[in-house]
Amino acid sequence: MKKSIIAIAIAGLVLVGCDQASHDSAKESAASVKATTTQVKDDVVSTTDTALNSTKQALTDSADAVSDTADKVADKAAEVKNNVADSSDAAVESSKQAVSDSAAAVENKVSELKDNAANATTDAVDASKDAASDAVNSATDMKDAAVDKTKAATNDAVDMINKSVDSAEKKVTDLTN
């Protein structure tokens, strides 16, 4: 029995040793798991921080890009607005100039027409004066011609009468002699 007790005691010691080794091994495993878990946790935190930082940087870059684009759009809109304003101002000035030019052209044309009308009136008055003068002259000439013809006809008639009288006297004288 001693041998059995010794064997049992050895077996118990082995079991206790195994149990202790198992317990030590479990502690070491737990410590190892804890260390691994801590490492995994640290890696997850580090990866999460890196991802978060990358996301923050991407968001910052996107925000900067959007802000730059918005600034460029605002600058372009202001430039277009200024160009439109400048174009509008130029168009207004051009319109004013066109209206002014048109008004001047109309005024010049009215003045030209007025001068032409005055000249035409003067020419008509002169032509009327000339026509009246020509009519008077023609009438005078016709009167003078009529008078001259009348005088000539009268002279011719007187001459004929004188010749007739002379001829009659001659016949009478010839008959009486």
TrEMBL record:
Amino acid composition bias (Low complexity), ranges on this chain: 84-95
Signal peptide: 1-21
Region spans: Disordered: 80-99
Record key words, sorted: Signal
Keyword Signal: yes
Protein name: Lipoprotein
UniProt source species: Photobacterium phosphoreum
